[in-house]
């Protein structure tokens, strides 16, 4: 489980970097942006990050008093940034749970959407099911990231140890199918739109978390907040969450336009906004599905995936799941003393 840990030194490094960079940053109008300039790691190339892109492009962040700067990074930099307070909020899967259990000051504040990852094999592969992956090489975009966490749960449910039963090999997201075509990977775990593009190219889907019974109907992405920033300025976190709620509602109501913006602004690869729009409608964003920041649904799905991670060995088998999630969850609007955004249906 070493890949799921982050050292105190790394957290300290992020804290130093944050304050150094902040001191050198440009000043913004405090009347227009009372919460100042805030970096949010959201440029990962995944379709599921669309509410972040839309919150920026359509001015939802600005309307809440936030001068948002979207930046790129990795699972580890995102996790360390949250723990240090460099980043206030992040989109992530249940792969954060082990770090929370190990003591990192990261809080669950809501769920974002359903279904955005697939586990696939090349079209001529002899692998027909997850059970056939024992002893095989699985390509992921990064060790410890969401596609690896999803695949680990699928493996554990198939009786395969994700720590000892397979070999994990990390490659850049846009290179995974290229490496697989060379015969150097047996399977790949991909975010959309890469996953669906691979499927359209003939790859065979072993697990589609939008349809697979282990994952279907449940959050695949949760929203997390920095515990440090929640203590220091819960109103700022509430403002960011409100902007994301409004953006998620907008995506739910306008998937075609959202997809066009995401593609034309180069947030996503390719030149097929129609495909992206199709994907966005399956993610069940916003008020249409009563998902974002629904406490009951968030906790229920978090309980479920914490139990799934016990099967993988990433969480202790004797962990009190309910206490763990209840302690990790924070109602941001209650903590900030503000009203929750309510969309017009």
From TrEMBL:
Keyword Signal: yes
SUPFAM superfamilies associated with the record: Periplasmic binding protein-like II
Alphabetized UniProt keyword annotations: Signal
InterPro entries, per database record: Solute-binding_3/MltF_N, SsuA/THI5
Signal peptide region: 1-23
Segments forming domain Solute-binding protein family 3/N-terminal: 48-254
Record carries keyword Signal: yes
Family listed: Belongs to the bacterial solute-binding protein SsuA/TauA family.
Stored PANTHER family: ALIPHATIC SULFONATES-BINDING PROTEIN-RELATED
Protein name: Putative aliphatic sulfonates-binding protein ssuA
Organism in which the protein naturally occurs: Endomicrobium proavitum
């Amino acid at each position: 489980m070493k890949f799921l840990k982050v050292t105190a030194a790394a957290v300290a490094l992020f804290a130093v970097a944050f304050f150094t960079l902040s001191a050198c940053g440009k000043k913004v109008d405090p009347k227009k942006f009372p919460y100042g300039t805030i970096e949010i790691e959201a440029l990962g190339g995944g379709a599921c990050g669309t509410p972040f892109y839309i919150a920026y492009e359509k001015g939802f962040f600005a309307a809440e008093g936030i001068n948002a700067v979207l930046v790129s990074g990795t699972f580890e930099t995102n996790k360390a940034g949250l723990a240090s307070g460099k980043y206030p909020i992040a989109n992530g899967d249940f792969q954060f749970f082990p770090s929370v259990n190990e003591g990192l000051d990261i809080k669950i504040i809501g769920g974002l959407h359903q279904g955005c990852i697939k586990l696939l094999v090349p079209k001529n592969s002899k692998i027909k099911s997850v059970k056939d992956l024992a002893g095989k090489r699985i390509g992921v975009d990064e060790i410890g990231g969401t596609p690896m966490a999803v695949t680990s749960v699928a493996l554990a449910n198939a009786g395969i140890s994700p720590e000892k039963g397979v070999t994990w090999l990390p490659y850049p997201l846009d290179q995974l199918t290229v490496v697989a075509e060379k015969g150097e990977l047996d399977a790949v775990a991909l975010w959309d739109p890469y996953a669906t593009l691979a499927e359209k190219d003939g790859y065979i889907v072993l697990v589609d978390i939008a349809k697979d019974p282990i994952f279907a109907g449940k959050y695949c992405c949760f929203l997390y907040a920095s515990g440090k920033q929640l203590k220091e300025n819960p109103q700022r976190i509430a403002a960011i969450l409100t902007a994301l709620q409004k953006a998620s509602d907008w995506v739910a109501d306008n998937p075609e336009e959202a997809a066009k913006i995401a593609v034309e602004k180069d947030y996503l690869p390719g030149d097929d906004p129609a495909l992206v729009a199709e994907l966005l409608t399956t993610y069940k964003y916003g008020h249409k599905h009563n998902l974002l920041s629904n406490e009951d649904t968030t906790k229920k799905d978090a309980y479920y995936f914490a139990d799934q991670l016990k099967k993988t060995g990433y969480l202790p088998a004797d962990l009190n799941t309910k206490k763990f999630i209840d302690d990790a969850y924070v109602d941001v609007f209650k903590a900030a003393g503000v009203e929750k955004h309510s969309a017009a249906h």
